[in-house]
Amino acid sequence: MVSALAARVGVDGAVRDPCGSRVLESALAAALLERTGALPGHMPSVAAPDAGAAARGFLRSRMAAGEVGGAEGVLATAVLERRAVASADLCVREVTGTAPDFTARRKQALVHAFAAAVDERFLPSWDEAAFDLSGLHSWAAVQVTASKVILARATGKTARISDEDVRLLLDTQGRPHLWEGNVLIHLSVLHALSGLPGTTATVLEGLQRVLGHQRPDGGFPFVTDTDTWCSATAGVALAASGAPQDVLDRIAAHLVDRQLPGGGWSYTDLAYQADVDDTSVAVQFLHSLDPARYRGPVTRGMDSMVAVASPDGGYPTYVAGAPSEACMTAAVVDALTVRPADNADRVRAGLRHLAARQRADGSFPPDWSSSRLHTVFRVLLAASLHPREQPAEVRRMAERSMRLVLTRQNGDGGWGQQDGEASDVISTAYGLIAVCGQDDPRPAAAAAAFLVAAERDGSVRGARPDSIGPRPFVFTVPVLADIFTVLALGHLAHRTAPVGDVSGKRLAGVR
Known about the structure:
The chain has helices at 2-7, 23-37, 47-64, 70-81, 92-97, 104-118, 138-155, 163-170, 183-193, 200-211, 227-240, 245-258, 276-289, 295-306, 326-336, 344-357, 373-382, 392-407, 425-435, 441-454, 479-494, and strands at residues 21-22, 220-221, 455-456, 459-460, 467-468, 474-475. With 511 residues, the chain is an all-alpha fold. The protein folds into 2 domains: 22-221, no CATH class; 225-494, Alpha/alpha barrel (Glycosyltransferase), CATH 1.50.10. It has a two-stranded antiparallel sheet.
């Protein structure tokens, strides 16, 4: 698996893997293609009818396979059967209940906006507070504004659309590539603009641009790719597993080149909105590779994360002033521990914040993964430095988290995303990383056996995606299953007798 993953590192040092098609974007694209084809005086391009048919074909295949439910299924049905959407069918509580509490009002408005986009008969609710842009990062601000404009038209409240709203949406257009690489936001903006006067040319140009990202299966993805995230996480996994030095050096050079002016990293080459998730992993990888050589980029990355710290000791995903999130706090704390002396107070405050956010069963509030072990394993790593010196509440937090992992392991050695669910590769990789932090080898051996059984020709098969965006909609980046499996096996190798890889190089250690 190390050899296969290393072979995916390009000459430029990037691990590139396109994001797979998703029903949500495909339904929005199909509806927009149909709407623009009916615009007065517009002759649709030759590609547009074929693109619309292909998108509908993708939706039919997913619906026929029984792979779609909830709000996405309702939207797909509305597009395919022109069935009216009823508020009761949208499963809004299912959406808001699996996302952080502070996003609930925005999520309801988002789902209603999607419904109004695919069904012009839909009568949404209007919640003025859902459109407050205070504390929002750039992507959220544009998405919220697009939702506001769509809902204002649907409810007859067009007077609530300001010049600033329209300017913000228009500023995302007229570029050589999709703004921030985000297909969903791009489609949302086009739906919002399509109902405004004087925007026809802009909408048609934007539609042609998004057609360039239609996948071979006819569907459209959430984002164009997550190449920077894949490169950084692959770097950590390969460094933990004894990959050849030249491969690691290429990844490092790529990440240094992708570092943003403010010191952070984003998820793709096309985006400029930094986040602490990508930044924390890039920092850890560069430091582990050569702390002296990469001291400058690591310092700038740390400064970028610290700049968004909350007074409560936690960290939000994107910008200062946004609510802290447990998973992002764990990611930052784990990264800050590479320089423990410089960050002792911040690490202590972050761990105490995590202890206060932990639930009784040992889990944490929803994050950017549909697997609850995602936050748990990162918390355990963050709390693993000098565990006997940690405050009592931090030790209790680690014990609760480990107990959750150990008691939820399935009989086949793996873990599911949530209680009672079948084992999947990515959740099992998270679980294996977690149990490497305790002394009984049996849970780790069983988890490793599950992962080994899923491997074929250097790649794992049958992985269930867990990446989320926007929360709680899951999207697929296939290479991440291989990356996290290699990372987990690297953690396991560190807890066993050191062995050499095919080049004879000793396995790199991981904390």
